[in-house]
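PT: before anyone asks, these are the final sequences, not the draft ones from last week. 882 residues across everything. Please model them as a single complex and drop the result in this thread when it's through.
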Amino acid sequence: MIPILKTTLRRLVAPLALVATLAMPAFAEHGFLLPESISDNGDKIDQLFYVILAVTGLVFLGTEGLLIYFIIKYRAREGGKAHYTTGNHRAELIWTITPAAFLLLIAVLQFGIWQDIKFPSRMPTDDPDAVEVHVLAQQFAWKFRYAGPDRVFGTEDDYTYGKLVVPSGRPVVLQMRSVDVIHSLFVPELRFKQDLVPGLTITAWFQAREGSERDYEIACAELCGASHYTMRGEMEILANEDWEARDRELSAANAPIDYALSDSSTEIFRFWPPSEFSAN
Amino acid sequence: MNAAAAADHGHGDHGHGHHEESFASKYLFSVDHKMIAKQFLFTGILLFLLGGALAVGVRWQLAWPFSNVPIFGKFSPENYYASMTMHASVMIFLVIIPLLVGFFGNWCVPLMIGAGDMVFPRLNMWSYWMFLSGAVFFLASFLVEGGPSGGGWTSYPPLAVLQQGQGVNLWGLGVLFTGFSGIMGAVNYITTILKLRAPGMTLFRMPLVVWSILITSILTLLATPVLGSTVLMLFLDRVAGTSFFVPDGLVAAGKVITGPAAMGETARAGGGQVLMFQHLFWFYSHPAVYIMVLPAMGIVSDILATFARKPIFGYKPMIYSMSAITGLGFVVWGHHMFQSGMNPYLGLSFMVATMFIALPSAVKVFNWLGTLWRGQIHFEVPMLFALSFVGMFIIGGLSGIFMAATPVDIHIHDTYFIVAHIHYVVFASTVMAIFAAIYYWYPKMFGRMFNKGLGKLHFWLTLLFLNGTFMLMHYVGTQGHPRRIAVGAWDESVKAGYKYLQDFHWANVVMTVSAICLGFAQLPFFFNLFWSMYRGKKCGDNPWRANSLEWATPTPPPHGNFAGPVAVYRGPYEYSHPDMKEDYAPQHIEDGTPVVQAQIHS
Ligand SMILES: [Cu+2]
Ligand SMILES: [Cu+2]
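LR: through. Structure below.
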């Protein structure tokens, strides 16, 4: 069996190399494994990803290599006898402590990144530069509420728009709510993903880098019904001065929100009056 | 109670083994653990076909959205989500767990500890019938209006509460009944293992298979009731108008469902907690992953030792690591909820616990490699499957570290990366171990040897196509392909999907073609399974020259299992001891010289 395996492997090398070469452009265009990253938070996540890839990749090559080596080297031979051993404390201690050290390293490495991205205490909610947007998810669409040029919610110039339009180079704080089932707002290029949970208001943030101005897609990443796959949203990143102009434009063009119909006993209806849904 | 007494007990319990049993009492309402094991085996294999067919439907849709699926016809989105939900539910609740624990635990535990039967034979029978009732509920959902649940096997509310039709209700009943079956089995295994061991069979002389079933049963016993009550609460939310998981301020189809009474008719009180369901669900369902992998680890340990002709490297550390997995398994459930809106402070503690649960698994992998080191490896069919388990489990284990890393999880959570991970653990590892187990114990179960050529064909095709199917899922996952979407790349004709996935559509096609081939690769297995039962070569009592007690029984083992009283003199892994002439020493033979001489090569 083994010689057959060897010749098969040798025959496979050329075609595999060819496929790999042909596939290279596809990989190059999108980054090796991950899509383009347009935020500092995304870059930190990517660095951690590649650290883990390097560590697990080495372990993968080492263990699988050893497995294949043992399979070939210790195949049964006529008259051969296996070596009798029931274990070795020293070896077992080594291969318990070494992976434990690596796992601890990976655990410690990510503390800071997670805190920077997710901890409420580190969110730029009080940053005067931050742009706040209210997000509403419902089967099967996204709505975005902007405070308008006065930057205060609950006023005349607030407006709702079906697209997430944000400036680059400024923190964007999202107040996320869902009115029916769980949805999840996912932008691969931002390495951003956050579930929207009925009954909760969840705050999350991101900051797109300057130079990343273009259109992006928003995916819904949590199963939300039979048309879940159609819940595609759009995001546009603009340079700051373009964004400010667009904000004024949209505020003037959209009808004011009828906050008089708000119901203050229920969190979500305070910001998204029920009258907005009864139309459907 | 010793084995002989247990055997007597087994007989006395249901008349005498001597006179002819009726068809019903022999095949349907049997209380013999071996027959019940076969009932689980054949029901599980039948449902495996269903689960596989559903998977092909899902894959077909992803490669060629809304085209004609062979036999079935065009998928609707509802068909797609029902297939996806039922593929996972059938495979987990009706195939993997029943095969590993119901079939395999039943078959092995009494034989391997030297007992005549399980300690509660009637409870054992009921455990099968509970399982079958659960299966009937799942299957019935295909017949009701609206079809099966499309809410995913996780059935997160509020979606699972708001879904129309009987699908989710039947799903809940199915889970509840298979859960009862699991609990009944667990009680039986624990008691049998603790109470019915043959003289000399100390706990630390038990094969790792038995240890794995014991530990899995403890896990089942502690975790399943939580799932049962969770599903019951979901069921009540649906049918009785309770609001365990239904919050205030819910609107569906333009109508306010919960909230201020002033807003119109309020059918429900609201005030429930959506995330509570996820906590309770994963409190069971994370340990469930270990229920689905621990017995596989036990199987593989035994098979590696037998065919490497070597003792297990680090027998006790293997047991301790399984126990550590069980203990830690109860404090890591939150790793499924990093992006759920759960408190991010909590995320870090779940992350650290999850990092450390990788450790006992790593120790096991090294100990398996240690077992192969300087062995005499015989490439019999069960060994091929067991070796591939080790290789594939390494992949499934390592990919888990990416998701355990909370920041990386932000990007890959709910993408195909997690789909790849779970399939490397549950298909590429566990299902391969189930195949290994079926081939390994086949000669004992049916008294005939399977066709080895067909077995090898089955192995190589399965190994090739499972990697063809699941390997690329990592790649599309890191590129951001969400799971559970009916259309991946933007498709102009259906106006759905994502443009950023257009460059990866080829991968979806490759995976689908490979998945179909993986389905066809099972044909030699099914043919072999049934053909060899009647046409296979007859074989002796111990064709693999193994040590554990099941090989000391007549073939196939009769009612009551052992021909006479049986006692145990050593551990199960005494292979190639330098003082012995033979390279094995059955546990039940005092001086270590095997009575039956058999050839490992035939
Ligand atoms: Cu959605
Ligand atoms: Cu888990």
